[in-house]
Specification:
TANGO2, DUF833-domain-containing protein, Penicillin V Acylase, Chain A, 323 residues, seven-stranded antiparallel sheet, alpha+beta
Length: 323
């Protein structure tokens, strides 16, 4: 049950994004880095299980950012030729559109490509620019339920806003982990400002939020469907799986909304535990300076990286930040 938290409430960082990627821990995943070839302007991790090498989160040197979470839509026919991770790629790999709110991209994705048969997803995307008169460019929100380009919602368009998203449609406040995450992020910002924390102290307080584990442990003989609904309660998902569920298909990892992809339909939990695999914190300062830290808790081999090797940190300034 992935989670993303976005805030514009810090006076020194007009854009903050926190993300947990929850997956099968042995799912092959490339660590965050600058991409290769013609896409050297893109920073992010990549999913290696599918040939398209899609991603759940990426940012570019010119300030374009995209973040995707999946959810299951019961009864919706899914095209195996379309990748949800590829939706992030489609935004960050193409040249930037001339309109500031990416209306051309939205029309291309919704009206031309067609997203109703991609599978359940929510895509956050936008170009990060310096706030003006308290206004922020914000992020667009598209899901497989978006019927036309005119229906695109925008979030975090002003300062002092915090929003959360997990493996359900955006705005679903019935998930405790979203409500809890928004509260914790707002409190961390207030505490950091009052204590005058330096950047590293603030970053660690954000990783602390991503590591909050309130997941009840399974009870003896507890039905699988009943237990997986508990995943919506915890920001952090500790590794779990075993003989009680080793015959359960991966696409049933959630009771109602989950993180499955078509390629995982034959994978079973017994082949590897499920839990929080990657954690990412992104800060953008008032000067347009980006600090991007990815923490790898598991490296696709059911093992934890050495402590000294778990974090990757990148820093750069957004091109065109003032415009």
């Amino acid at each position: 049950m992935c989670i993303s938290l976005i805030s514009t409430a810090h006076p020194d960082y007009p854009f903050i994004l926190l993300n947990n990627r929850d997956e099968f821990l042995n799912r092959p995943t490339a660590r965050a880095d600058w991409w290769e070839s013609l896409n050297q302007h893109i920073l992010g991790g990549r999913d290696l299980q599918r040939q398209i090498r899609g991603t759940w989160l990426a940012i570019t040197r010119d300030g374009r950012i995209a973040n995707l979470t999946n959810f299951r839509d019961e009864g919706v026919e899914v095209s195996r030729n379309k990748s949800r991770g590829g939706l992030v790629n489609s935004y960050v790999t193409t040249p930037p559109y001339p309109d500031p709110h990416d209306e051309s991209f939205i029309r291309s994705l919704v009206d031309d490509f067609g997203i109703q048969d991609v599978g359940g997803f929510t895509l956050l995307f936008g170009r990060l620019r310096k706030p003006k008169d308290g206004k922020v460019t914000g992020l667009g929100v598209i899901s497989n339920r978006t019927e036309s380009s005119a229906d695109t919602e925008r979030i975090c368009t002003e300062r002092d806003q915090t929003n959360g998203l997990s493996n359900s449609h955006y705005g679903d406040s019935s998930w405790p982990k979203i409500v809890h995450g928004e509260q914790l992020l707002n409190q961390a910002i207030k505490t950091s400002v009052s204590r005058r924390d330096d950047e590293d102290q603030f970053i660690e307080s954000l990783f602390d939020i991503l590591s909050v584990d309130t997941l009840p442990r399974p009870q003896d003989n507890e039905p699988w469907q009943s237990y997986t609904r508990q995943l919506r309660n915890s920001i952090f998902i500790p590794p779990f799986g075993g003989e009680d569920v080793e015959k359960k298909p991966a696409d049933k990892i959630a009771a109602a909304n989950g993180t499955s992809t078509p390629d995982q339909s034959t994978v079973t939990v017994g082949e590897g535990a499920y839990g929080t695999q990657r954690q990412t914190v992104i800060l953008v300062s008032t000067e347009g300076e980006v600090t991007f830290i990815e923490r790898s808790l598991h490296d696709g081999k059911d093992v934890e990286p050495e402590f000294s090797d778990r974090d990757r940190r990148f820093e750069f300034k957004i091109d065109g930040w003032e415009h």
